[in-house]
Design a protein that fits this description.
With about 300 residues, this protein is mainly α. It has a domain at about 1-155. About 60% of the residues lie in helices and about 0% in strands.
């Protein structure tokens, strides 16, 4: 489900030697990032950090804003992770040829292997990601998960159930939050649990927001079991149907059962559990937050 605007370099371009970009890692000191200057006053070149920041701002603006809330020590790593995600997420929008898309993803898979061996290609995102990996010991597993999820999606035509959509969302969204938690130095199981549910919820939201975009490419990523329940076909979605049965599908996907994350957060006995070491135990106050449920149903 590609929801990003496209702005990637062509596949045949030498990705390791992008022209016009200074491939020198730099620290991000603010929203605008840091910039380096050549010995020629009229020439200004961006650092790899600025390159990544611009990529996230152009293609994933909501998460760009969220990055501004991170502590400064983890912000550059967050930018690198989000920029890497932009690179792999927009692959399926850059080309309609599955083979070419797989080649692009294979480039990033090989790049990950190289940067974990300190043999970093001179590509801005790779260089910035390498700095984050070295500084915060980011897990290669979660970075690979982002690539694997996108490759699985290349040939997917639908999700058979909401569970299958959640599995994809765990790989493509929750993994991002696990990496950001690592950059923050968090080893809290409660935080990991929250990140898992947050990523799944975000994936479901993206599936709904991406309906028009995907329908324009004759793709439908709504759960098939819910569509069958309401008598909605893929062709109905592609044609842009506004019938009540399609609205019922969207309602079921969006609302469903109360989120375990909401129950956890709204539990009066565990309101500070993200800061505790003791395990989570539901208590008498462990009920879904009404405000959350009502918002989801709307």
């Amino acid at each position: 489900m590609a929801l990003w605007r496209v702005g990637a370099a062509p596949l045949v371009a030498p990705l390791r030697h992008l022209s016009g970009v200074t491939v020198t890692p730099g620290d991000w000191g603010g929203v605008a990032g840091s910039r380096s200057h050549s010995t020629t006053p009229a020439r200004r070149t961006s650092t790899t950090t600025q390159h990544c920041l611009d990529a996230v701002r152009r293609n994933d603006y909501e998460n760009f804003l969220a990055l501004l809330l991170l502590p400064q020590g983890a912000r550059s790593a967050g930018v690198a992770v989000r920029a890497f995600n932009v690179e792999v997420a927009q692959v399926q929008d850059v080309t309609s040829e599955i083979l070419i898309a797989k080649m692009r993803l294979q480039f990033w898979r090989e790049t990950l292997d190289e940067l974990y061996n300190d043999d970093v290609p001179r590509q801005p995102v790779a260089l910035e990601l390498h700095r984050a990996v070295k500084k915060h010991r980011l897990s290669k597993r979660w970075l690979r998960s982002l690539i694997d999820a996108r490759e699985e999606q290349l040939e997917r035509r639908y999700f058979s159930s909401i569970t299958e959509l959640e599995v994809y969302s765990e790989k493509s969204n929750s993994a991002l939050y696990y990496l950001i938690l690592q950059a923050l130095g968090s080893e809290n199981l409660h935080a990991d649990h929250a990140a898992s549910h947050l990523g799944k919820a975000e994936g479901i939201i993206k599936a709904l927001r991406g309906i028009p975009h995907n329908a324009s490419k004759r793709k439908v990523f709504l759960p098939q079991d819910i569509m069958m329940k309401h008598g909605v076909s893929q062709e109905d979605v592609i044609r842009g149907s506004r019938e009540q049965n399609l609205k019922d599908v969207i309602y079921d996907v969006a609302s469903g059962a109360p989120s375990p994350l909401a129950s956890h957060i709204c539990d009066k006995n565990n309101s500070n559990s993200l800061d505790r070491d003791k395990p989570y135990r539901p208590g008498p106050g462990s009920t879904p937050c009404p405000r959350h449920c009502e918002a989801g149903q709307r």
